[in-house]
Specification:
The chain is an alpha/beta fold and 647 residues long. It is built from 24 helices and 13 strands.
């Protein structure tokens, strides 16, 4: 296992001076453009603008670039605290919805304005590092097993080289897309907005940026909040392998079964996928078109790492592993969809350029199989098998080498030193940046507090309500002790067991369609429930009218069995799923409540009750019964496919 570097945050003075010189060697005049309107998702009260800065402050001839920002006012006015500045947590991600999320969802903006700055080179900036060819080959690498990882990474690198050549021809300087330059953007924004001081919030990749800002702009940064801290000097690749193993080990302990070793299980399953890759349809997150994908062992391990970032999804993984060990590869299908979502949230051109410049130089080599011991006399030699790889890092290695992107100076990749009040949050189940590494880094920040949350994954404030509450409490009074604000175990979600549900992998698509308001995929149940509702209304009106006319109602009352049972079926299904998912938010990935198959009885009763409608004898009743048969058969077929047919 790759060791985790213990990080030193105290730097020699000369290193800090060099870092500041490189960051601000050719200072540019930052300017705020006239408000050009905010994205709807930012909220109607947001104030937006564009920050204009040099593309590369180290190059006096550099052109300028435009980077959007948004200011979300405190919900309680006037604001009593300094503003909080944030960037999107992940390199290559958009901050479009971040401000609203921090301000309202997490409560950071109750007494403080929230300022959000997009990343230089991202989709929202002008110009950007969007490289369609890179995106296409990157997706191909994750969805095809035709070539080796090195060959796939080389193909990505060829596209990246072509993209950067075009970028340079248009006057661009890709060497400006570093952590230090991004930190300078944050400082320029503070000066542009004439904010004397603000609080820095960094999560994941952006924790590197905010650590640099804290060092370079100490007078303008009054406090620092770091979530899933990833220090600039970290061996991100080696740490990711170690963190993944630690996360799987914690999950093994939580399972309660002595001898369980999910790290070993995942490795064995990966070997199986190398021999027999997973195949299935998935929607390309960039084109919106469906395609068949193939996933080998390294793809599977990389997917597992991504899944472990969410505690709710993590609780379903033991059952997934069991099903995969039993040969049910189809159980992986809804998880592959989640992986595609994560893949589609990143601008891979920007990600690779910045990674090659700033982070790759600190990476350790890919893990390899240990040398096999010499065989005993008469025994066949054991051929070592290399372990599965984390695809993102291996692809980036090959792509950076092929594109010929030279690493930025080493002084831009060392951990900055700062002394402001600092809170560091970490999740014990973080499979990307381990809590142990974050704690070691926090120990080197004078006067910092470190708080770990059991069961929480990456980006702790999004996976633990207690973490968000702790952060908000600390923002109210930076420097106060917040280690006992709430229960640090709140992120632990009980592990889903086979005995507690009816296993099916298709329910996830229904829940997803509801979340996405995809009415086409819900057409059958919507027609069914709409038909039942209209029928029930008409039936009640008819009962009332006939009752007033003192007609016999026996058969007419019985004719209402079908719509009533249909609506009862719908209500029980919807409320039952909502109730189950309130306790197990990711339940639909592996199944539905155990009683769901019996809901088919209600559908069967409703279908047979249509006989009563036929017996009413009128032409209208016959048409209603005929339509009812079609609607009920359609619903029965849909229900059987989603719930009853093994998947």
């Amino acid at each position: 296992m790759i060791g985790i570097n213990r990080l030193r945050l105290q730097l020699p003075l000369v290193a800090l001076v060099v870092g500041m010189t490189l960051a601000f060697g050719a200072p540019g005049v930052a300017s705020a453009a006239e408000g050009d309107g905010c994205p709807e998702i930012a909220g109607s009260d947001a104030d937006c603008g564009v920050l204009t800065v040099p593309e590369n402050r180290n190059n006096p001839a550099s052109r300028t670039i435009d980077i959007p920002y948004a200011v979300i006012p405190a919900s309680v006015q006037p604001a009593t605290g300094t503003p909080v500045i944030a960037l999107a947590p992940g390199l290559g991600e958009s901050a479009e919805s971040l401000g609203r999320h921090l301000s309202r969802d997490l409560g950071f903006g109750t007494h403080r304005d929230i300022v959000v700055l997009e990343q230089r080179g991202g989709q929202a900036s002008t110009p950007n590092l969007d490289c369609p060819g890179v995106t296409r080959t990157w997706v191909d690498a994750f969805t095809s097993t035709d070539d080796s990882l090195k060959a796939e990474g080389t193909a990505v690198g060829l596209e990246l080289g072509d993209c950067l050549a075009e970028f340079a021809e248009s006057g661009g300087d890709a060497n400006g897309y570093t952590i230090a330059q991004t930190a300078a953007d944050v400082i320029d924004l503070r000066n542009t907005l004439q904010i004397p001081a603000w609080t820095l919030f960094g999560s994941g990749w952006s924790s590197k940026v905010m650590s640099a800002v804290a060092a370079y702009d100490a007078a303008g940064s009054d406090a620092v909040l770091l979530d899933s801290l990833s220090p600039a000097a970290a061996d991100l690749k080696g740490e990711a392998y170690a963190a993944l193993t630690a996360s799987l080990t914690e999950l093994s302990t939580r399972s309660g079964d002595e001898g369980t070793d999910y790290a070993k299980t995942v490795a064995e399953l990966a070997a199986g996928f190398d021999d027999d890759p997973f195949t299935g349809p998935v929607t390309n997150p960039f084109t919106g078109k469906q395609r068949f994908v193939e996933l080998d062992g390294s793809d599977f391990v990389s997917l597992v790492q991504q899944l472990l970032t969410d505690p709710a999804v993590t609780s379903t993984l033991p059952l997934l592993f069991d099903r995969l060990e039993d040969g049910d590869s189809g159980a992986l299908a809804p998880y592959v969809v989640l992986g595609a979502d994560a893949l589609g949230s990143v601008d891979w051109g920007q990600y690779l350029v910045s990674t090659c410049l700033d982070q790759k130089a600190n990476w350790s080599p890919d893990p390899v199989a240990p040398e096999a011991a010499a065989p005993a006399e008469g025994e066949e030699p054991v051929v070592p098998v290399d372990p599965p790889l984390l695809v993102t890092y291996s692809l980036a290695d090959a792509a950076c080498a092929q594109a010929g992107i030279a690493a930025a100076g080493t002084e831009l990749r060392v951990a900055p030193s700062f002394t402001q009040p600092t809170l560091v949050l970490a999740g014990s189940n973080d499979p990307i940046s381990s809590a142990a590494s974050a704690q070691a880094a926090a120990a080197s920040i004078p006067g910092s507090q470190f708080v770990s949350f059991t069961g929480a994954g990456h980006r702790v404030v999004d996976t633990s309500a207690c973490a968000a509450k702790t952060a908000a409490a600390w923002l109210d009074k930076p420097g106060d002790d917040v280690t006992a604000v709430c229960d640090h175990d709140d992120a632990i979600t009980p592990i889903v067991t086979a005995s507690s549900l009816h296993e099916t992998s298709r329910a996830a698509s229904v829940v997803r369609a509801v979340d996405d308001l995809n009415w086409f995929e819900l057409l059958v149940p919507l027609i069914f429930l709409g038909f039942c509702a209209l029928w029930l209304v008409g039936w009640i009106i008819t009962i009332i009218v006939r009752g007033i006319q003192r007609e016999r109602l026996g058969l007419l009352i019985a004719s209402g069995i079908s719509p009533v049972t249909g609506l009862v079926f719908g209500a029980v299904a919807v409320l039952g799923m909502q109730s189950a998912m309130s306790a197990q938010p990711a339940l639909a990935l592996v199944g539905v409540p155990s009683y769901f198959p019996y809901l088919g009885i209600l559908l069967a009763v409703g279908l047979f009750a249509l006989i009563v409608v036929w017996k009413l004898g009128s032409r209208g009743a016959a048409l209603l019964a005929s339509a009812g048969v079609l609607v009920w058969l359609g619903m029965l077929a849909w229900f059987a496919w989603i719930v009853l047919v093994p998947s």
